[in-house]
């Protein structure tokens, strides 16, 4: 049998796996892989709600992150490598329904531009009396979808979400996660965090590339690239090894 026929057979097998028509052995994919198999993987992840902007058949950092988040959400060992267990879960995956926790009749307020200068770096910026307001505002957007570059309740990215929540409460903070990481005072342990503080993670690039607001009891709220605004635990198998540190911003 020619190599061309063998390649065509492998592609058909993978297509059957993803469409649920047949359960066959599937290829192992990881960072550095490329080709039609990766393209099918990216399209499937995208179709069930995971954020992939480059559907190009190249298994890069973005695809690895989406796979790891899918594995986390489906209680598969988080490796970022697509194995048979991941293919089987993808076959049965359903599209994420965005915004299911938000009442459709709820008005989506426009961003309020806070008056005054940008919040200072390396200092607490949030009055303890306003923590409750910040957390209520943050929770009111649970279920809003994720979009890279999103800064409104139509869709948020992680730092756009934080900036919007704080703006709604009259506090002007920077737009990006790495700049937001300069706020407040670094904590030596997550146990020193209090509700309202900020938490940061290293995900798709070195340094602070993801952020959220600490809620207390080991939980934080953030704009997840897989399921939009949601609450997760710092001890989560996906987030714990990526935790960069907390910043104490509550006065």
From TrEMBL:
What does the entry give for GO biological process? proteolysis
Report which superkingdom the organism of origin falls in.
Bacteria
Enumerate the UniProt keywords alphabetically: Hydrolase, Protease, Signal, Thiol protease
InterPro entries per the UniProt record, alphabetical? NLP_P60_dom, Papain-like_cys_pep_sf, Peptidase_C40, Peptidoglycan-bd-like, PGBD-like_sf, PGBDSf
Q: Which residues cross the membrane?
A: none
The record's listing under SUPFAM superfamilies reads: Cysteine proteinases, PGBD-like
Domain annotation NlpC/P60: ranges: 128-250
- Region ranges (Disordered): 103-122
**MF-aspect GO terms:** cysteine-type peptidase activity
Question: Signal peptide span per the entry?
Answer: 1-25
Q: Which family does it belong to?
A: Belongs to the peptidase C40 family.
**Name of the protein this chain belongs to:** Cell wall-associated hydrolase, NlpC family
């Amino acid at each position: 049998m020619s190599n061309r026929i063998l390649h065509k057979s492998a592609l058909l097998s993978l297509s059957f796996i993803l469409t649920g028509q047949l359960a066959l052995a599937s290829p192992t994919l990881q960072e550095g892989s490329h080709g039609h198999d990766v393209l099918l993987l990216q399209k499937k992840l995208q179709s069930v709600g995971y954020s992939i902007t480059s559907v190009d058949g190249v298994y890069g950092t973005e695809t690895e992150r989406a796979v790891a988040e899918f594995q986390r959400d489906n209680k598969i060992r988080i490796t970022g490598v697509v194995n048979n267990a991941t293919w089987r879960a993808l076959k049965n995956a359903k599209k994420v329904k965005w915004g299911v926790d938000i009442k459709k009749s709820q008005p989506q307020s426009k961003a309020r531009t806070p008056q005054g200068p940008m919040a200072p770096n390396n200092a607490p910026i949030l009055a303890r009396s306003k923590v409750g307001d910040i957390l209520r505002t943050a929770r009111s957007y649970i279920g809003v979808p994720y979009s890279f570059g999103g800064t409104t309740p139509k869709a948020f990215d992680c730092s756009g979400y934080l900036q919007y929540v704080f703006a709604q409460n009259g506090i002007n903070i920077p737009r990006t996660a790495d700049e937001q990481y300069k706020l407040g005072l670094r904590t030596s342990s997550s146990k020193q965090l209090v509700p309202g503080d900020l938490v940061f993670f290293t995900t798709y690039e070195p340094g602070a590339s993801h952020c959220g607001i600490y809620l207390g009891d080991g939980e934080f709220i953030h704009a997840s690239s897989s399921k939009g605004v949601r609450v997760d635990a710092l001890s989560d198998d996906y987030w714990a090894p990526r935790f960069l540190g907390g910043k104490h911003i509550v006065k």
